[in-house]
Each structure stands twice: as C-alpha cells, then as structure tokens.
Amino acid sequence: MKKTITFPVVCAILFLSIDAYTESRLDPNLADSLVQATDDPLLKADYYSDAWLYDKAIVVLDASGKTDAETLWRLARSHIDKGENLSDDAALILYEKAMNEAQNAVNLDPRNALAQQTLAVACGRVALFKGVFKSVGLVKTVHTAALNAVALADSVPIALYVIGRTHKKLIEKPGFVRSALGLGWANEDSISYYFDRALEVSGGNMIQCRVEYADYLFENKKDNTAARKMLEAALSLPLRDEQDAKAKKRAEGMLKEIGK
C-alpha cells in the first residue's frame, strides 16, 4: 500500500536519468541521502516507504517515540507493506498490528483521511485472511473507513479502490445472504463506479486496480474486450507499488485465458 510520493521526492527524482524514472520506486541510495538531510521522522519514513524499505521506516518511526496520528498511520502502512512479502501467519500478525495502529490513529484524529484509508486497508487484509463472510464486523469497518477517507480528501485513490474491491467480493454471495449479514448495501453497480473513480483520481496509474477491474469485467460481465484493454493498460504501466509485479503476472495469465 502506497501513498502519493511527496513533493521533495519528486523534485529529487527529476535529477535522475530518464531510464531510472521508468519506475516510481525511489532509489534506496537516494532515500538514504534524503533521510540524512532532514530531522523530520515523518519525512524520513515517507522516503523509506517510497523506496520500499519498510523496516527502516519502522525503525525511524519507533525511534521518534511519538504516538500521534501521523506517526501511527505511517507505522501501520509500513507494517502492511512488510506483511505483503511474508508468509500467511507472519503476515497476519503484522496486519493485525497495523489494524490496531491505524485504529488508534483514527481515534486520535478522525478527520485524517490517510489514517482512515490505512485503517480500511489493514482491516481488509485481516478480513481476507480470516474469511470475508466470517469477518462481517471487519468488512463494515473497511467500508466505513474507506468512505470516510473519500469524504475527507479529494485524492485518495486507494480508498476508492478498496470500496470497489469490497463490493466485488461481497456480491459473490446472493443478496438475501448479504442482507441477513447486514451487508445489504453491497451492490454490483458500485464496483465499476468506484474502480473508475480510483483510476480517474490516480491518473489511471493503478496496476492492481486495473487487474481487479479486468477480473470483474471478464468473470462477471463477460466483456472480454473491455477486460483485455484493462489488462493491456496495466501491463504498460510502470511499477508504483512493490506488489504491482505480482499483479502484472496475474494480468499476463488472465490475457492468456481470455485469448485473442
């Protein structure tokens, strides 16, 4: 899970070669240099997060000794990102830790859009591990937190993507089942709406969103043409998140399944 790269990072990247700019990952060596140039632990953590150096981000934030909302949601972000590279049991431990950190951040500052977005992502990760329909309370928190993030900020594409993906997952069950579980708000029309909004807000540069959207278009709408276009677009994009490489492999497999 990533946030938009901070302005100072963008300025620094502009001095790199064009080839180095083909991916959005901040060069780890540059991240270390930028960290040395600031005393702000939040900015240091952002640099390390942009360089996919999650352990270093966690160390910086822990060492700050701060427990404010801005620190806590960043800790949660790094624990989520780190967990995405671990085995199931180890990942779940970090996702649950992130969920608690993000919830504390939201409790401290309910109007912090990125704290709300991070809470949605963390709860979503835990719910997927435990089973979405066995974790109704978590699913409701995912939906509420993501909606809160969207209401609080103009540019939170991850929150929009999370809402779309939540609806996509929930419609796997019939409407009467969803209603009985208190999930009657889930509907198919919301899937395309929120995926489209996520792509619009992000400038279209969300590989994972495009692949998930393509899966919906292929499996649910039987629209091979639209699914193929979405996958081809995903494969043409530079990596922005460490998990984008996995999404691209999935896209390649889906294209083979769809065929020419």
Briefly, what is this?
The chain is mainly alpha-helical. 70% of the residues lie in helices and 0% in strands.
Describe it.
- The protein has helices at residues 7-13, 28-36, 41-50, 54-64, 69-83, 88-108, 113-130, 136-152, 157-170, 175-180, 189-202, 207-219, 224-236, 244-258.
- With 260 residues, the chain is an all-alpha fold.
- The radius of gyration is 18 Å and the shape is globular.
What does the average pLDDT come to? 91
Shape: globular
Number of helices: 14
Number of strands: 0
Q: State the distance separating the first and last CA atoms.
A: 32 Å
Structural class: mainly alpha
Order of helices and strands: HHHHHHHHHHHHHH
Main β-sheet description: none
Q: What share of the residues lie within helices?
A: over 70%
Unreliable spans are 3-22
Rg over C-alpha atoms, rounded to the nearest angstrom: 18 Å
Strand content: under 5%
In terms of topology, how is this protein built?
Layout: H1 7-13, H2 28-36, H3 41-50, H4 54-64, H5 69-83, H6 88-108, H7 113-130, H8 136-152, H9 157-170, H10 175-180, H11 189-202, H12 207-219, H13 224-236, H14 244-258
Structure keywords:
260 residues; mainly alpha; 14 helices; 70% helix; globular
